Amino acid sequence: MRALILLAHPEPRSFNAHLATQAAEQLRQDHLQVDVIDLYAQGFDPLEAAHHHPQRLQPGRFDAQREQRHSAEQGQLPAEVQRHLQLLQATDLLILQFPLWWFAAPAALKGWLDRVLVYGPMYNSRQRHEHGVMRCKRALLSVTTGSSARACAIDGREGDTRLLLWPLMYSLRYVGFDVMEPHVVHGVRSGLPPDRVQAHDEALATAARDYRERLARWSQWPTVPFNDSEDFEEGVVLRAEAPAFSPFIRHRDAG
């Protein structure tokens, strides 16, 4: 089996980088083949743009979806996108490792989704959601926050972290992944006063050990529920009798 770990943090000595290393070591110990992509270290360009597609289908107007599909069909995808796409399609487990910045993933990671989840090879109108290209494969968000767990709870001032992550989890589900419940480490800080550094570092060391222990059982890790296509009338509106799993997709009378 294979795993792909995608790291999105600009500091190679960060706790996020440490978690990516710990994950790779644990999975290799469990006999998985592991590939690691450090988006910042590799200088990945997160901006989807016309210059990435020199053999254009429509030279006068840039339509990202159509040009992605055309480039894929012509074997003209950018080399870095093609390499990442091949790794992604070959993996059984995808881990996205990143800090929560401004209540979302860093731009580097969002741009990776924009460029590597290529229209055509990764999804189309018939291959998405439970019928997606990546069905029967698993994906995990491993995330850090600077704020405490209390502040990131459903009634916390920072907002519900799991809810903030839902759009990204849904993007992974859109291409077919079984999305694992996110792994979040709160309170990852820098610039602390000297009397708080030791306790902070000890807490992070414990968190890293706990993460490795959980990853050793990654195939049993609980997954996030999503609605299937049959839950929607004409594939568009949630049926009255269908369950609702998130405030993002809910019944109108639910408020």
UniProtKB/TrEMBL annotation:
Transmembrane feature ranges: none
Identification of the protein by name: NAD(P)H-dependent oxidoreductase
A Pfam family the protein falls into: Flavodoxin_2
Keyword line: Oxidoreductase
Entries under InterPro entries matching the protein: Flavodoxin_fold, Flavoprotein-like_sf, NAD(P)H_dehydrogenase_qn
Family the UniProt entry places it in: Belongs to the NAD(P)H dehydrogenase (quinone) family.
Organism the protein comes from: Stenotrophomonas riyadhensis
Source domain of life: Bacteria
PANTHER family recorded: NAD P H OXIDOREDUCTASE-RELATED, NAD(P)H DEHYDROGENASE [QUINONE] 1 ISOFORM 1
Keyword Oxidoreductase: yes
Domain Flavodoxin-like fold: 1-206
